[in-house]
Amino acid sequence: MNHEKPIVYADDDTESVSMLLRLRVPVLLVGLCLGVLISLLTSRFEEVLKYDVRVAFFLPFIVYMAAALGSQTEAIYAGDLKNGKAKFHAYLVKESFIGFFVGAGFGLVSGIVAWWWMESTALGFSVGLSMFAALLVAPLVALITTQASQYLREDPAVESGPVATVIQDMVSVVIYGTVSSFVIL
Question: Most buried residue, 55, 79, 144, 182, by CB count within 10 Å?
């Protein structure tokens, strides 16, 4: 006999507002707390931001691109988990390639744009390398978070999206702040 807790999927068509709130608010509270942590992490890079305020211009861009790529991975994988078609190892291999190739292409383009626009080789290199690294890890963060939600018997579409996004945001801030500090200072 299977004693595992059944997964309750958030479905606006069939669930009440109170049930949807019970499913969605706890993970959003986690995101709120981790969002404060992102602000604290960003403050750790005050020196490079003071040295060249233009570094701040690209932070939302890098964070967004990584979150967007991770969201794609999470949505596709969560859908396949619900349908019973997901194979973690196969996703891990394919999403690693996607992260690498998207990261390389978008990193190159964004680095060139930053270099051209800001007339700074160091800033262009920081933006390009950071974009590459953030996009490289984004699908992996999304996969692991989505798989963890499934393992914990939570609806991956509700749980993993916000958690994967805020974790990826933190990772992107740390990557960009570290790379920029190393290259620019």
Answer: 55
